[in-house]
Amino acid sequence: MTPLSRRVFAGAAAASLLVGCAGHGTTRTGIPRHGGYPPPGPSRTPGPPSRTPGRAAHAPARSAPVRLRIPAIGVDTPVIRLGLAPDGGVQVPPVTAHDRAGWYRYSPAPGQTGPSVILGHVTVGAYGDGVFRHLARLHRGDRIVTRLEDGTAAGFAVASVRTVAKSDFPADDVYGDVDRPELRLITCGGPRTGDGYLDNVIVFAALSSPSP
């Protein structure tokens, strides 16, 4: 599958991000009642990414992530693929006792130019803590390793960690065009209400090693 274009990502700017909030205010599938990851927009459908002339010949082959390790917070999890939900929002990982992170398959694969997006729960209802429960504890320079389906790996270093209100989700910062491989890890955070969490925790990371 090909990643969404920059224009499609921009269509999500006004949508509310409620990923990773399993528990109160969710359906039985674990997708919050008010929607999942921001939809591409009512008049848009997934399409190929915009390309910069001269880059295509040097782009690495696309290979899906299958495992994610974040040593600083003890994360070592399989990675599943996430697509679009029937309501047009983006799927979130299922709520299970063995919580896993999920890669949004319409974003670039880790190691490709652009922002690769991986989502995870902070809590998983009756099962307790989610795989991204300590995401907000990461610091600049902490290492993230994504193992890929083709047997290679892409290593990233945390550039920044931001906690933002869901009502002010920085879509351009998360989805905007970048000229290098980057990674976004997203979960919920901040105060908890009856419908989930009020904020999102977003980790921004840049490629540090193509094959650690």
Automatic annotation (TrEMBL):
InterPro entries: Sortase, Sortase_dom-sf, Sortase_F
Record keyword Lipoprotein present: no
Compositional bias per record (Pro residues), positions renumbered to this chain: 37-51
Superkingdom, taxonomy of origin: Bacteria
Region Disordered, residue ranges: 26-63
Keyword Signal set for record: no
UniProt keyword annotations, A-Z: Hydrolase
NCBIfam families cross-referenced by the UniProt entry: class_F_sortase
Name the UniProt record assigns to this protein: Class F sortase
